[in-house]
Amino acid sequence: MNTLGEVAVYLKSNDDFIIVGHERPDHDSLGSMLGLYFGLRKMGKRCRLISGDPIPAGLSWSGLDWIEYLPRGFDPGESCVIVVDCEPERTGSLAQSVLSAKRLVNIDHHERERGLGDVVYVAPKEAATSVIIYRLLRELGVSLSREIAVPLYGGILGDTGGFRYSNTTPEVLEIGAELLRYDLEPDVLAREIFASHPLSFLRLLGHTLSKLETTEDGRLVWAAVSLEDYEKFGWDPSQHDQLISYIRAVDTAEIAILFRETEPNQIRIGFRANNVDVGSLARQFGGGGHRLASGASITGDLDIVTAEVVEAAKEYLTVGERYERDS
Ligand SMILES: [Mn+2]
C-alpha cells in the first residue's frame, strides 16, 4: 500500500492516462473519474475516460460525454491505467484490459484484503473515492475549478446519501463546503442524484415495493426483481438505480436485500444495513463492499438464489444477536 504522496509522485512521472471506474457506474465512480480527469488535464497530461457500462442519464456534469463506452474492453498500450472506486478485478467487462496494463494505479475506499497495481491507495475510512481524489489533487497542487468541483461534490453526495449516512464526518462537510465555493448549485445536483427519475423507474419502484417481503420480526427486508419485471417496465437493469434505498427505508429493517436479475440467471445482490456488518455477509457469497453497504453476484435461478441468501441473512442476524449478548 502506498501513501497519497507516492500516488502523486507516480502520476507526475507519467503523461498518458486511462481512467476507469467500476461496472454499473454510480455517482462516486463517475465523480472520481471526472474530478481526476480534469485535474490531470490541468497538469497538461493526456487522459482518456473509459466505461464498460452505459453512463446513467440525467446528470448535467461536464465531461460525461467524453467517457468512452467500450463494453468489449480496450488496449491499454503504454498508457497508465488508473482504476478508481473499486479494485481492478471489479471493472466488469473491462477487467481483462485493465489487468493487462503495463502501469496500473488503484485508488479506492472499499475494504479489501489486498491491493493490485503498481501503486495502490485504499482508504476504507474515507466516505467516497471523490474525497480521496480531492485530497490527491491538493497533494498534486492542482487548483480546483468548477468542472472539477461539480463531479467531486456529486460523488460525495452519492456515497453519503446526501450528507446523511454515518460517513458524514466534519472533514467530509468541510470538503463539501470548499467545493461549494466553485459556483455549484447544490439543489440542482441533489435533485439530479436523488429526486429525479424517469417515470418508468418510478413504476418499477412501485411494483418492487408491492412485492416487498420481511421476516416476522421485520428485521430482514427483501425484494427480488426479475428480468421480466425490468422488461415490463422498460427499465435497463445494467443502469445504476436507487431501488434499494427505498427497501432499506422500512422502519424495522436491520438488513435490506435487493435481488436483481440483470441477465438470464445472473443475480446481483445488494445489501444495506442500518448497523449490522453486511460487508462480511456479502463476502460469504464472493462479493464485497462496505460495512453498511455491500454487494455480490451469483449465477442461478432468481427464486433459488433469493431463498438461499435470505436464509443465510436470517442466520447472520441470529448470530449477530448472540455476539451482542456475549460481549
Ligand atoms: Mn464509492
Could you walk me through the main structural features you see in this protein, from its secondary elements to its overall organization?
α1 packs across α4 (129-140), α2 runs parallel beside α4 (129-140) and α5 (146-159) crosses α7 (186-194). The relative contact order is 0.10. α2 (27-42) links the parallel β1 and β2. This protein has 2 domains: 4-194, inorganic pyrophosphatase (n-terminal core); 199-326, Diaminopimelate Epimerase, Chain A, domain 1 (Roll). The strands form 2 sheets. A 6-stranded parallel sheet has the order 3-2-1-4-5-6, with helices on one face. A 6-stranded mixed sheet has the order 7-8-9-10-12-11. With 327 residues, the protein is α/β, with parallel strands linked by helices. The protein contains 12 helices and 12 strands. The protein is globular and about 60 Å long. It binds manganese (II) ion. Manganese (II) ion (MN) binds next to loops.
Brief write-up:
With 327 residues, this protein is α/β, with parallel strands linked by helices. The chain is built from twelve helices and twelve strands.
Keywords:
single chain; 327 residues; alpha/beta; inorganic pyrophosphatase (n-terminal core); 2 domains; six-stranded parallel beta sheet; globular; binds manganese (II) ion
